[in-house]
Amino acid sequence: MKKWWWKILCIVLLVYTLIAGLLWNNVPRLPQLNETIRNLYFHVCMWFAMMILFIISAVQAVKYLRTNDLHHDTRSREYATIGIIFGILGYATGAIWMSYTWVDPNRPAYESFSQIAKEPKLIGAAIALLIYFAYLVLRDSISDIDKRARIGAVYNIFAFAFLFPAIWIIPRLLPSLHPGGEGPGGVRTDNPALDFKALAPQMRLVFYPAIIGWTLLGVWITTLKIRLKALKEKTYLQ
Amino acid sequence: MAIENPGTSTWNGLFWIIQLFISINAVAKSFLQENRSRMLYYHTIASPQNFVLAKLLFNSLLMLAMSALSMFLFSLFMDYPVKRTWPFIGITFLGSWSLSLVFTFLAAIAAKAQQNAAIMAILGFPIIVPQLLVLMKVSNAVFVTNIPVPAANILLLFGSDILVILLAIILFPFLWKD
């Protein structure tokens, strides 16, 4: 890699996110949320990073179909894989947040779970991840290299088009506890992470660097995986 | 019959799940049954855009006939909870059109990957679930007389259908290159 400054930027931003995000005494203490609002710097950023990695994956698929260069196909696959991992991390951080805000402490955990598992946002994100799992299954089931790349790229673009209804449109049409959509009592709220006015100004100082930092980390991991794959292919050829 | 008198939501869910499986089985045949020499023959007489449009049109008509048949059989064998028949027919035709378009394109992918119909289910289910959710939500309105059919959701379905047709026209030539 010729350019390395962004890796340093990534480390600096993530260290800043961890220290300022967890320690800086600047978050508003809203009822029910309290200090858990700090999870915004982790949970929301995971989904941002996932979305950006999936976009890069689709762009690489388009590039492959235009140029027939197999490097683009490898990149497309690896970006999709790391996107899935960030999606799973988004679930994990969301589960931590949920256990402090949504779970009813007066009831057994499994009763709350059946309520929470019906959340449209959770279902939508699960569909998005399943679409990309299907992409991996399809692409890796074909043995011919060129055919695999071409069919994989076609499905990747098709799947990307259906990602938008799954995670952006459908969950907004259904009532939900999650911010962004129709809340309890039929009050429409926009997602505070996307609505720039809704977030407290002092929190934006950590939130935007955190998005950039986590996304750069995802890209960094992916470039490492791509280089590893290129090395493996080289050893097969020898 | 296992379910004598299902409630409206069960009836609705059952109806759309059966539509889904009808469309997987009916539409998958269209690509998976073509043998290689016939595909080569098609290749010599038609452009890939015309070919995929013809397939989409044929499967849409096939699926419309199938959904009309299944509506008739549903009303024959079970009780008929639909209060407003014409909107229901419209929604069913729109829904089965969406199902046939998506599964036609996925069948093209599955046929090129030389896989059986199982891969089509793996590819298709996550993609079709959002549309099925919207369809069930929309068709809930036909079981009562006082709620208007949500127009925004109908437009969303139309939009996704147009999107599938456009993507099929753009992407199918790449699948056909062999």
* Biggest sheet character of chain A: 2 strands, antiparallel
CA-based shape of chain A: globular
Reading side by side through the largest sheet of chain A, how are the strands ordered? 1-2
Extended strand count of chain B: 0
Helix-and-strand structural type of chain B: mainly alpha
Task: Output the number of helix runs of chain B.
Answer: 6
Tally the structural domains of chain B.
1
**Quaternary organisation of the protein chains:** heterodimer
The low-confidence parts of chain A are: none
How far is the N terminus from the C terminus of chain A?
24 Å
Number of helices of chain A: 7
Query: What value does the Rg of chain A take, in angstroms?
Result: 20 Å
By secondary-structure content and strand pairing, the structural class of chain A works out as mainly alpha
The helix fraction of chain B, in percent, is over 70%
> Biggest sheet of chain B: strands, sense, closure?
none
- Whole-number total of structural domains of chain A: 1
Average pLDDT taken over every residue of chain A: 83
Transmembrane segments (chain B): 14-32, 52-74, 86-110, 117-134, 154-176
Organism (chain B): Flavisolibacter ginsengisoli DSM 18119
Keywords (chain B): Membrane, Transmembrane, Transmembrane helix
GO cellular component, one term (chain B): membrane
